[in-house]
Amino acid sequence: MIRVAFALVLAASACSPAQPPAPVSEPALAAAPVPAPADLKALEAAHDWQHEPGEALNAGWNDGVKTLLGKLSRQDAIAAIEGAGFACIYGEAHQDYPDPMAVCSRSFATRACQMDWEISSTADKGMVQDVDGAFRRDCVGTDDDWPDKVKSAIDDQLAPATPPQ
User: Which of 59, 98, 111, 138 is the most exposed, fewest CB within 10 Å of its CB?
Assistant: First the structure.
């Protein structure tokens, strides 16, 4: 008799609709770790460079650059930087320091802002020794400029109000 009752309960539970998963609370969602970007292009895509606060963008860029490039060989780091669209210039090599400093930059402009990213790196014995990133933004007006308010041609809105004939 117990076996029959158990079989009926088991069959009834198998036919009942599945219960929805318990909702995840907002604090649990906020505590979930944000996945780290896999490369410099993903790091760039992770932010709204024109609208987010400049201080947070600069810190995020610097931290991301250090995380992504800090443990690479010099050759792999330069390949990753150039693969993300950066142009690099190099310091002079010396017999005591054969890996010169690289300063790499990339710029992009929208109708409202000119944005510039920079990566500087040094290497020793073929491995990245130190790497830093910096972000700058010059927008129409000076309210969204970062790190300093810059009075530039973009602020004067030099484009003619009406197109030339």
Answer: 111
Query: Token digits for 156?
Result: 């004067």
pLDDT digits (tens, 9 = 90+) for 90-115: 998 888 878 899 999 999 999 899 99
Query: Are the beta carbons of 70 and 128 closer than 8 angstroms?
Result: yes
Per-residue model confidence as pLDDT tens digits over 133-142: 999 999 999 9
DSSP string, 106-150: EEEE-SSEEEEEEEEEEEETTEEEEEEEEEEEEESSSTT-BSS--
Using the Cα atoms of residue 119, residue 123, residue 128 and residue 132 in order, give the sign of their dihedral. negative
pTM, rounded to two decimals: 0.72
DSSP states of 95-112:
TTB-S--EEEEEEEE-SS
Closest CA to 75 of 40, 99, 110: 99
| CA gap 49, 137 in Å, rounded | 8
